[in-house]
Prior knowledge:
- Strands 1-2 form a two-stranded antiparallel sheet.
- The mean pLDDT is 77.
- By secondary structure, the protein is mainly alpha-helical.
- The chain is globular.
- The chain is built from nine helices and two strands; from the N terminus they run H-H-H-H-H-E-E-H-H-H-H.
- It has one domain.
- The longest helix is centred in the middle third of the chain and has 29 residues, at 122-150.
Amino acid sequence: MELSLLPIFWYGVLHAFGPDHLTAIADFSIGRGRRKTLFVTFAFALGHGVSLFLFAKLLESVDLPAGILANGDLISGVVIASIGAYLLFMVATDRIHIGRHLHEGEEHVHIWFGSSHDHNDADFQKRTASALTIGALMGAGGVRGMLVTLGAIAHNDVDFWMVLAFTAGVMLVFMGFGYIVALINDNLLTSRRNVRLAFATAGAVSLIVGSQMLF
Length: 215
């Protein structure tokens, strides 16, 4: 059975608009500079796409009960709710900070977790690796809907190009939403009050979305 890649691409676009995906992107991107936000968003999309492909190939050859596939949604719910609880904890314990620094005559705003802040890339690398990992874990939740929609399991025809088209649609939305978050970071997160409010909002939304997926 031949499937046009264009409908698969558009299904990827629709899939990416899931509240769990957008919530996860906001959680990892909030408070970052534009370049770092887009890089972290790309890492999340890449992890999600690779995970979907691997799960798709696995499910092609292994006939798993539908109930097991449905548990993938539980993984996504636990991940999102846990991130939300963590952000709320960081806000409640006053561990999110904002500072201003001059670099080559230009003022830059820096937001960081913990009691101290340095200028190396350790935090950025950690966030990127976390986004890649979380994107991969959430692929377990997305693979069921993708394969059912494409009819891929029944026809045993999942291939690299199908998943690539799906991932391209997902990445288009992820990167666009990441850019919006970056604009918010640049223009609104300029005071301690706004930073705390933004992280508290992201945490609360994540907890609600994750809890709804679980229950």
